[in-house]
Amino acid sequence: MTRQESQNRRPVGRPRSARAHQAIITATLELLAEGGFDGMSLEGVATQAGVARTMIYRRWPSKEALVIDALREQHAEMPLTDTGNLRADMITLLREEVSQAANPLQAKLLLRVAGEIFARPELFSVVFRQQLAPRLKHMEQLFERARARGELRQDLDATFMLGLILGPLLYHSLVSMEMPMPHTLDELPELIFDAVLHGIEGHLKEE
């Protein structure tokens, strides 16, 4: 087994209690969000979780293995909506994205992991699979149904449309940390989708 495989393998067994396990996972995510990968340590996780260091060392062979396992336990939570109207569906989903962005821990955690994308791409890969991919897949399905109804232009692919819609939300989240923005996060779902809609909507209603 290579060193990388040893670091990334899922730990065997569980700590003595589910409460201890959850305390370790929560402490890991909090310290990762606060100080980044290099700013955290297994000792710090043990202290914050209130567990013995040996409990962590027996279960996780490295800090990287612990962080990857903690990130794997994060799952996307989003409303599965299909009202038959793309605007209503996308605004519902964007509101869920806004609520995630407004969560200090989740927002900081995503930015920290994104900042590690070149040094430790495997961390972002885990977040993508657990958090982002399910959202993107559901949005792509909504776009395909909207195309079939004539609500969207046929010449645009789903990935491009998602970039148009989600890009402004990410921009607002980043820039608002340094300067006041003209709109609040709560106002963004309708503003973003309505601004983009005129460029991607179909022509079914022009008849």
The CATH class of the largest domain, by name, is Mainly Alpha
Structural class: mainly alpha
Low-confidence region ranges: none
What is the CATH superfamily label of the largest domain? Tetracycline Repressor, domain 2
Compose a concise summary of this entry.
This protein has helices at residues 3-8, 18-35, 42-49, 53-59, 63-72, 86-101, 104-115, 121-149, 158-175, 188-200. It has 207 residues and is mostly helical.
Set down the secondary structure blueprint.
Blueprint: H1 3-8, H2 18-35, H3 42-49, H4 53-59, H5 63-72, H6 86-101, H7 104-115, H8 121-149, H9 158-175, H10 188-200
Q: Main attributes?
A:
mainly alpha, Tetracycline Repressor, domain 2, 207 residues, Arc Repressor Mutant, subunit A, 10 helices, elongated
Descriptive overview:
The protein has 207 residues and is an all-alpha fold. It has 2 domains: 3-72, Arc Repressor Mutant, subunit A (Orthogonal Bundle), CATH 1.10.10; 86-206, Tetracycline Repressor, domain 2 (Orthogonal Bundle), CATH 1.10.357. It has helices at 3-8, 18-35, 42-49, 53-59, 63-72, 86-101, 104-115, 121-149, 158-175, 188-200. Helix 2 (18-35) packs across helix 5 (63-72), helix 2 crosses helix 7 and helix 6 packs antiparallel against helix 8. It is elongated and about 60 Å long. 25% of the residues are buried.
